[in-house]
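Subject: Protein record for review, amino acid sequence with backbone structure tokens
Concerning: The relation between a protein's sequence and the shape of its backbone.
How to read it: Take the token row as a discrete description of the fold.
Enclosed: The protein record, placed directly beneath this head.
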Amino acid sequence: MTRTLLTGGSGFIAAHILDALLKRGHSVVTTVRSRQKAEQIATSHPGVSKKNLDFVIVPDISAPDAFDQAVISDPPFETVIHTASPFHFRVDDVKKDLLDPAINGTVGLLKAVRNHAPSVKRVVVTSSGAAILDFSKPQTYTFTDADWNNMTWEEAISNPLNAYRASKVFSEKAAWDFVEREKPQYSLASINPPMVYGPVVHYINDLDGLNTSNERIRDIAFGKAKDGCPLTGVFLWVDVRDLALAHVLAMEKPEAAGQRFLVSPGHYSNKDIVKGIWEAFPELREGLPMGDALTPGAFPPEGWYGYDSTKSKKVLGVTYRPLKECIIDTVNSLKPFVK
């Protein structure tokens, strides 16, 4: 059993990582922003002892020394998985709301682990395909873990979407730079997913509280996109459960040290999401976009960038669920919240 610190435990991805950690026999302490969020997570894991699941409050991950106390544990931590970073576009100040928390939170955590948690041997950081995909390249290009999105600061602060993408670029680069410069006692691995879909297991009040990616499935499934399928944008995806397991395997496997991992089974489009819902949920067909309304969500006839996730399969041993399974499980997890 490994003692693990998981940051941002109330989030969509982190909730699945927590499940994977507990199922694989690890002991977890997760950071949350409030006691209320800790209670919500605890309620969803009845029967799990405090020895195996505990909490520490970190109200603001971008604050100086935010993680200094969180990284101290008895028994001491051996691994850290860092997921805490904002992913939404409802912001007033992109630097304050997106860029600073991502960058300062990541570097602050790495410093805290170096200074106060000498027993930690591996840190896994949730990055993003946004840190890799550079759309200035020709669409025949195949991206690998060696690629970086070369977005500038000026581009980053121009709008919330750019700021989110840049927050992943800058925070992951800052993490690798820190490890290279400071030579801490731990090794680093990063996980770089594209669009992340999958069933909701974290606490939400209603469908307005969904993570940004699953909002797309919500809108398609429950009639909001009937008159026009949303643009797909990034034609690569991963199931959150496979992504969660990838994090845990990157924590467990010695050979993952110093590696970036692209995680995706391949291409998809929003039109494929519609098809999956149509086939599995006849009762929802009336609200689905059909005919010309499907066109915006279709896969480009000229093709789209390649994305080489071979390393995730060979080094981590990840196997990927098909899109249809992901869509069915996601819709079933959302249906109880439909009013």
In short: The mean pLDDT is 93. The first helix runs from residue 12 to 23. The chain has one domain: 3-199+236-265+306-319.
